[in-house]
Amino acid sequence: MAPKRQKSPSRKTGVKGKVKDNLTPSPMEKPDHPDDIYPIVLTTATQELFECCIDEDVTEQSPYKLLEKDDIIQDIKTRAAVSDFHPVKQFVLDYPEDEILLVFDVDFTYGQSFYLVLTPEAKARIYNVLQPPQPEIIVLEDDVSKTPEPKPWISLGSELEVDQESVKETREKLCYKFDLKRRPGLPVCFSDRNSTEAECRSVACPSYQDSRFSIKQMQRDCGMQAVPKLQSSTAQTERAVQRNVFTQYEPRELREKEKENILRSEKLKKFVNSVTPRVLHALQQAHIMNVFTDDFKALGIGAEASDQLVMVSEGLKLQWTFTDEKRAMGKKISSVSWHPTIHGLIAVTFIKKQEEQLDKSTVYINSPAFIVFYGFPDQSNPRLLLECPDDIFAFEFCPSNPNVIVGGCRNGKVVLWDISFHIPHLQGTRPNSKKASDSDSDTDTFDLGNKKENKTPVMSYCAVSSIESSHKSPVTDVQWLPKTFEVTRTGVPVQNISNMSVQVVTCSPDCVMFWDLRVPKLQNQFLADRKQDVDQKTMMTPYSIPTTFKHLDRTWKPLFRVSLPKIDTSGEYAPLKFSLEHYTCNSNTGRNTDNENDGAEVLPEYSQLRIPSAKTLKTLDDVNTKFYVGTEEGEIVYTDWKLEEDEFGRKFSAKPLLCFRTHAWFVNTMQRSPFFKDILLTTGGWNFAIWKEGVMGGPIFVGPSSEQEYSAACWSLSRSAVFFIGRNDGSIEVWNLLLNTSEPTHVHEHVASTRITCIKPCITASKQHYLAVADNLGVLRVFNVPKALRSPVKNEDLNMQIFFDQENDRLKDYLEWEELWAKPRKEEGESKKQVEPDKPVTFQVDSEEADLKEYSDYLKLEESILKHTGL
Amino acid sequence: MAEVEETLKRIQGQKGVQGIIVANSEGIPIKSTLDNSSTVQYAGLIHQLVMKARSTIRDIDPQNDLTFMRVRSKKNEIMIAPGESICWELLLNEFHSPKMKRCYSS
């Protein structure tokens, strides 16, 4: 709705007459105002209508109000005579412009509160004068909001290029329309066709290069871009790792004065006082417990603890087999021995088998006997051969001087060898050439000729005992006395000053003999001549006999002999093997060490040694002069070798102290345990027995009888509970007394093809334990002992000791029991025997009656039981 | 000085003690019960070890310090007591070594 405008009548000059009429009610104002100003009164309603309320829309400061002409006319029409603008109706209608100015007259200058400006000129005059600042502002605004006009385009010639590049059609596009005339109404068939198929390939007009027409391209557009060549590289200075390095040629030492100063200083005292308790504490700890125990090892169950598990899988592994066809043909090995110092050297003796022994004379000539030295790893060529006068049954290396070997022959003689000349050869080098160059004798050429064939050196024996004084039967066992004591002519053990083993004990089925290697006293005169020979040192050739024992050759007599008269009956025992107790003395340690050092480097000159007189030497009382002897009949005899005097002053052997018939046949092995000095293992016949020295009641343990004959045995060198037994069928039984005492822990079947004659163990290194097994066919086999059999179980020694003690106790108990019960039984038996011849019949009757009684008792018992069960 | 001597003697007299070396902070031996060459060798070697050990402890915790060191080997044990910056003691212990097995050959 158009706002009602309050019209203030505006005076117009043209309409004066009419207006005057209207304006007569206000003549008072006529003289006060000009013609184009018409004061008017506006009622409040009109004011509201035209929005010019006093003090609201129109105020003193802004007294102007522009009213629309149309609104005024409208108001006049609506309100007619009541309208305030009625008097100025004509002026308003004639007003040329659209807006009429209404001014609020505060001061009533023209007599009324409002006045209307009738002419545009007056309006402009009043309005513009009274509001000058506004148009200025308007002008400024116009300047700022003006948009920049585009500048005229200056052609730089690019429109030509654009025209050139633009593609315009040179001619109109040709349009072809193809029609196929068809008669309508015909049947139609629609089908699909693939346009890529060959048959209906769409015909295209591809562009092709026409040879008639070619355009040479004169100009080609190519783009260029300058690219800078970039190369990245890095550089870094190496930073050396700082490390403290110092070299010192001489240790820095403080001078004496400085040392003293420091020692005297208070600081040192304080320090020592403060630190001492800690140190003592640590020492105490070390005292209390063993700080060096390896906890892991102590925990370890490993291979050591479980004997049983490992035993089954591992066995004796055959390492080498030594056979010598030339010498072993048809012979059996009688004895085997490892060289005590040279590793891998083993000596073997061959003897003819029993059957061939009949024709002794021919045997003597045909095949001489040898001790054959084998060395690892050469399995067929022996290293050294030692000539023997006859088959050697037993031999042994001297413990203090391994170059000396003593052996016992079939004919009862005792033979000595000295192999010191061949030691370099035996030690593994092949100095055949060396030997040839060393010796200047004429046999050089002989040597050189033989060198190519690599012939085994042969050495002859140094000395052999005299025929009268030797044994009458084959020497079955030979042992050296330890260097700790020696024996006089009566068997009294005395001190051994020379600290060497110089005495030998031999045994054969007729007796036991003690021999000495040194020059006997009685022969001093004869030696005066021989001494000169000895002093001239002749060059040794391989074939010469060393003169070490020349003083004994063929004149060697034993010191004394020990015979073994039987305890109960007359006659003598026939000893096959014997075992002495090794005596270790500590009294001469001071001197002995010196002697040892000398002895090691200088070969003892046995010919220079004399058997000292018995009086000059100190008697050793604590040497055990008793020894065990195993006989041909399976008896173990314990006897004393000291000779006793009878009433006539003659020396004779005492009766043995003990004799036990434990074995059924020959005793073929008697060996002391390497761990326990007083434990002895004997095998013979079909069983083995363990003896303890000092126990007089018998063997402390007898193994079960086996089906196979036991032919050889030896203790293990590293495990105190293990020993090996060789059988007649060529098997080896491994016994472990801690595991099983009734049967062998393991049997290695048919290790050899025939009867095993000798087993000897040897330790070359901590992991290399060998077992040499000799058999009846002359073959020597060397086995590797597996870890299970060579590494001892924890506390094995202790347990073995306990075992032996237990067995000992058991034996004692048994003997006591036997004593208690044996006597009455004996008496009974005797009484029975007495009774029997008198009343044999009654005895029988009695027994019959007793039987009947028993039978009736049994019947009664049976009845009662049946009643019980309800049958 | 007498006290120091007495203490050293007392420790030396303990069972299993092989020797004592007293050295200064630079590792130069001051007093020793062993022969000169071994003393010098031990002093030099142990000095480096102690320096290293001490720096290790202090690296981990600067408030901490090395008080005692024991170096145990198969055959013997070395005990080291380092001091503030002056001396440290060195002991060698050899006992409780594993038993040797005795074996007789027949």
Automatic annotation (TrEMBL), chain B:
Superkingdom of origin: Eukaryota
SUPFAM superfamilies xref list: Roadblock/LC7 domain
Record-annotated Roadblock/LAMTOR2 domain positions: 4-92
Family: Belongs to the GAMAD family.
PANTHER family (alphabetical): DYNEIN LIGHT CHAIN ROADBLOCK (PTHR10779)
Name under which the protein is recorded: Roadblock/LAMTOR2 domain-containing protein
Source organism: Astatotilapia calliptera (Eastern happy)
